[in-house]
Specification:
107 residues; mainly alpha
Amino acid sequence: MSLPPLKAPWIVGRTPLLEHAADEFLNEVTRQRPWTRARAEELLEALDNFLGRPAPLRAFTRATGEAWLRALHESERDEARELIGEFRAYLRDWGWLDALHPVNQPD
């Protein structure tokens, strides 16, 4: 029997921030591709700034992600689109999105 994978931690009782999730994402992704860290960090920081740093993670939606992509220079869009696709998958796979939408909480 194996244990389920560990989920990314967040600060209990506080609003998860985009920067917290981005830091965890960068640590995970760049273990496999360390050469991508600087550029990914730069793009995620730009996204956080666009959303009003320090942005709550809840501010990162498909609509705000698309708005951010449109605000970038055309030469950066493909790279940024790929990065936010990976970031969104990470958020889903590691439970960050579940934390934003808790179920069965007492009234």
